[in-house]
Amino acid sequence: MYKTLAVIGLLGVSACASTDPLYRNFQGEAGASLDDGSFGNATMNNTLAMTNRQNFVIDMSRRFSQEVSPMVNFAFNSAVLDEGARETLREQARWIRQFPEVRFRVYGHTDLVGSDSYNKSLGMRRAQAVVSYLASQGISRSRLEAVASFGETQPLVVTEGRERRNRRTVTEVSGVVEKRQGELDGKYAQIIYREYVNSAMPVSTLSGVSIVSGPSE
Fold it and tell me: How many domains does the chain have?
């Protein structure tokens, strides 16, 4: 009787072991087990994380707005850049030159004085003035993706009177330069934190190099 029970027990263990994937992989011939579809998922997930254009744009937009002022203001009924606006745009240009992979869009705004059509045109002239000045600072116009005017439709301060804070342009990260999109593959963090990486390099390594981050556009 005990022998019978022992045989039944061994058969049961053997049957369970034969259906256990871990047992089959260990005992079976190398390569006998087929991939269940999960092989390579880790690499795929890493690649997607490194090349996710949307996250890249969000991260760069956040950094740009935190590290430089994205906004300049204008006198009433004017698209002329005063010295304060030009200084802000020089700071923007210095930041933009660090990241030749990134494109930007400039939005023009006005206060609520005047007609909708006139303010739409005025907002566009302000955006164009900013684009022209950034271009004069060595930024390629191909990276300034577009100029757009919101006119009086998005005031910071809702008032019918003259309000300087509403008379503004806003520069924003808009995307990635087409011919440089491949640079994001595996370099997401390196690009995002480029100046931190460069700050750790010995001074002697940087001597004689005008732009460490790569050619500006």
Answer: 1
